[in-house]
Description:
Elements: H1 3-12, H2 15-26, E1 42-45, E2 51-55, E3 61-63, E4 66-68, H3 74-85, E5 88-92, H4 107-118, E6 123-130, E7 138-141, H5 153-164, E8 170-172, H6 183-189, E9 195-201, H7 211-231
Parallel strand pairs: 2-5, 2-6, 6-9, 7-8
Antiparallel strand pairs: 1-5, 3-4, 7-9
Amino acid sequence: MYTQEKIEALLRARINEDAFNIERVYFVKTDRRCNPKKANPIKYSSGSIPVLVSAPHSVRHIRHKKIKASDEFTGSLACMLNRLTDCHALAVTKLYGGDPNYDSDCIYKEALKEAARKNRVKLVIDLHGASREHNFDVDIGTMMGASLLGKKQFPVLLKKHLNDYGITSISENRFTVSDQNTVTRYVSGILEIPAIQLEINRKFRVPHQNGLDYCRLAGALTEFIKSVGIGYSGR
């Protein structure tokens, strides 16, 4: 099937509308804090492909005692990729008092560790959001290659699939900060699993307003995740 036909198939399947509904149900904008001992603030969806898609800023979070904005539609994108590929997905659903992409002691990272080790995950893709003002569609963060743990083919393969879906403005290593405990740093350094941090321009994160570009991104990431999974099938 040609790429354009695949995009049209995703539009007909209304995955952009599904993403909007998932966001509205699970990833609500609110400053109301929950007690993580009483209500689990993390949503995990299991899969069969040894790739885990992470969305640590899917809802508002707290850093240095200040509430920070969420990276909208990263949580619902992780859920959609779980549905489209049968990969694993992990996202925060409630403001619980910390920042999963900054804190060292972190319930999100503990949940990620449990899921990754139990399922022998071979790659973690950590989703983040960038504003429209940035001059890129997607930025691929790998800590200057260090987080790949030798798997240099991953960003090459990812860029190929992004290009196939018409996403061509791709930068590298604009945002991955090596002196804080990002998910990418934690996964590669502590769990010893290759990790990629994706910063996604808001243009591709408004499925209710721009379904075409949302489906381009979802299609490209679907192809990438499946290709990684094929590489590990039977192992």
